[in-house]
Amino acid sequence: MHIPESQRGKLGARSLVCTFIGFTSQRKAYKLVHHPSRRFIESRDVVFNEGGPAPRFERITIEHNCAPNSATTGPNPLPRPPSLPPQPAPPQPQVPSQASQPIAPPIPPELPAPTVTTVRPKRNVCVPVRDDDPCYNVSSYKLRPRTAEHTSVARTDSASEPKTYAEAMARPDAAMWEAACEEERKSFEAMEVFKVVPRPDHKKVVGSKWVYCEKRGPNGSIQKYKARVVTQGFTQVEGIDFDETFAPVAKLSSLRAILALATKLDLEVHQMDVKSTYLNGELEEEIYMEPPPGFGIPEGMVLKLNKAVYGTKQGGRVWYKNVKAELESMGYTRTEADHAVFVCYRDGIISIIILYVDDFTLVCEDIEVILRDKEALKKAYNMTDLGKLTYILGIHVKRDRKAGRIELSQQRYIEEILERYGKANIRLINTPALTNEHLTKLTSPEIDVKSYQRALGAIMYPMLSTHPDIAYAVGALGRHAATPGEEHQRTLD
Prior knowledge:
Strand content: 15-25%
Number of helices: 11
Oligomer: single chain
Shape: extended
């Protein structure tokens, strides 16, 4: 940008290097910014550098009708910029003299811009940490010697459930597990989950296995033997075997709030369960799976999946998209606060459906509306009607409608956790945390990290579900999960 003689001294700079940011709205001029002085400038006499391998400069002059102070704004003098190297300029066309051009009406001078004082934010400078610092070696995945506590925990978790198909068939209750496996095989065939094809040459074939579970009631008795075929989804390749994987489930806070609302308004609360949930979602990707034991698939043949199977990366997402479309066809609308809570208004009656994977909780003041929704869901999916809500997500629900009271309990789960860690006979205290206890941050762990994290994670579920009173204690102990010590273990105990 050229500086007029009236705006510079005898030894002052004749031009400034600025950045073009647009055109002025009040007159014919360019709007520029001068970075060294942090000032905005309006001028008609500029030379543009278009860049490229060899800099090219093009002189552009807009008709001169500016006021004496139109080159710059602000009272401060402009600093001297570095001079530009001389460049051969192409011959310029003859510019008519100013006398022969029409004179535009004078423009009133602009008010000087206020001086802006910039203060750079202060940053906390941290001392660099060496690459071999011990803090980088702390990991919960390091192999550590298995202690007696590890052995007892593993034995408690898996003593009653088989791990393989062969083990299930060799147990005294093999008939029950065989019936559960047969039910799963029939579900696969009825829903046309797979197609038997020869093993492809240039396609990834994911593995499969049986997973067995004993579903128990609030009193700990076995209610059902459940067997499920799952894929080894960890072998799937992102971008080829799957894309997006996120699928929402109902928040525990939403469940508590709606149950409290149902108790206050004396609403009906029922529950349903979907059988073979993921098998209802259709896959868009081409996925091949190894046949699990007991399916009787010939050698050299594999299963090409048409539907999502438990264990696939995108299984939860395709199921959610399927059930969302079904609920919307029934007149329900997804809430924005919780995408797993659906609401419907019909004839002045509101009905709510809470979705947690395969568990449906139906809430409405009219029992006929709930029965109508149950029939609609049974037509779409293979559903089990569980009647009034009594047990969901490991939470025992006890309701007294006459007294307007509802109770949520995880007594059985908490007793199992205490038994697992040898705390069944501990003495109770009135406060959820020890008083006057100040935990110290350590640089290296003093105890087994994995055992500490396992115990801390076990009490996080009651904290989120039914015991918010221990949230502070769990949060304080969680800050030391990477480097726990004897003091933290004693507080956790």
